[in-house]
Amino acid sequence: MRVTTWNVNGLRAALKKGFAEELARLGPDVLLLQEVRAFPEQLPGGWGEDGSHGWTKHFHPAEKPGYAGVAVFTRGPSAVSLRGLCGPRQRSAACPEGRVLGVRFGGVEHVSVYLPSGSSSEAAQARKDAWLDAFAPFAARLARRRTPVVLGGDLNIAHGENDIHNPVANRKSSGFLPHERSWFGGELLASGWRDEQRHHAGDVRGPYSWWSNRGRARTLDRGWRIDYLLTNRPAAARSADASTDRAAGLRCSDHAPVSVDLRQAPPPPLRHR
Question: Which residues contact 243 (CB under 8 A, 6 or more apart)?
């Protein structure tokens, strides 16, 4: 099972730039989307319709038009398990920003997450910090599940110095602030999650998943790694590989899609009478 997470920076715009073709090349079985920035009925070509293009689709849009929003697509029947930091039966009015959506598929719970950015102002950073405080215990409960859970999305934090092109110059930048990095390691990963890209890539620079449009950052691969696929212990035991597709990101978004491949679950042991 291939699970791919992708911040598409507006799905309507990404569809005009070759999203469908890149998706066919990537070949995921589960697609976690962030920053959809549209209601399903606004998507062209039937992309907002459940079952179209071979996908079962679940959306959690923000109430504010053209803002945030997450979705999960699966190659087969699936069911919503959670919506926002709320229960599965809560309406979007209870979680108005459209930032968290969980779906059960293939014996795995897949959670698409879009944490806020704090780069625009001190007030935005304060809202982000409040989200981190609320998200940590929620994520910790998911990590403790005895069944496999994959949590993926744009977390808007570069955790370590290998996750950002210029760590020295960005020490005071939102997304690489000391307290954010401490939260990522001490609160999120310490609760039982494994960072699949870092686990498989090892102690290397990158692979980056987001690039600024300024200063030739995209061309020169001067980026940040802020898009993650995290696995709890049962899911990590099935992880075979992880990858980041820079080419698809450069074509369709300012973020690259990130994927993890999970092995099939082993069959239950035979019981002898």
Answer: 258, 259
Confidence (pLDDT) at 111: 98
pLDDT of residue 249: 95
The reported pTM is 0.94
pLDDT in tens, 108-135: 999 999 999 999 999 999 999 999 999 9
Catalytic residues: 154
**Spans in the chain with pLDDT lower than 50:** 87-88, 90-93
Return all residues near 264 (Cβ < 8 A) that are at least 6 apart: 1, 238
Query: Phi then psi for 265, rounded to 5 degrees?
Result: -65, 140
Question: Does residue 68 contact residue 114 with C-beta atoms inside 8 Å?
Answer: yes
